[in-house]
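Lecture 7 notes: from sequence to structure.

We start with a single chain of 203 residues. Read the sequence below before looking at the structure.
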Amino acid sequence: MTARAGRPPTRARTALGVFLTQLHMLYGPSWAELSRRTGLSVSTLQRTARTSGPVPREENVITYVEAITDDPRAVTDAKRWWRRARIEERGRLRTLNAPAPAGVRNEADLLTALAAAYEKDGAPPLRTLQSRAGMAGDKVYVLPVTNASRMVNRERLPTNQRQYEAFLTGCGIPEHALDPWRQAWHRAQIAQPAQHAPHHRQP
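Now the structure, written as tokens:
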């Protein structure tokens, strides 16, 4: 989703642009040199650092910052502002009313919680989510894009727990935070009659 024409920028979009602009002012380099370092056009870089307009792609933000400074804190801060800007731009998270993992009782609750986890991570492209979720073998991803799409759209739970946890990993949830999600998975499975258990072939 992109910002609608004439719509004022959100606070987080403005803050992201201010952060990126100040970083460039403090450390340089020129736009031409930054373009050479990143492989991105000057116009793309300048749109990335604007304080208005659609939220730029996350990878462009990261590339922009890493070409200016090697301080990992700058990348962390940029990612934080980018996620906030995406959440505000999409406007979906607040409408989900998603329970925390500990409050999940059934499949519907869990699907809503998964959709919220995706939104909190800035709703990355599904191919990006799939890549972050990890590999099951040589050139085989753990999480099929079709299954990820069904979770994001609250249509169906994944085929198995491995795909479920891979989705969460793709949404930036670390291993040490997965236990409540595992418990939520088991509660949803118990609450759901066996004959309605989600099952579909991988593409």
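Confidence is low (pLDDT under 50) at residues 194-203. Keep this in mind for problem set 3.
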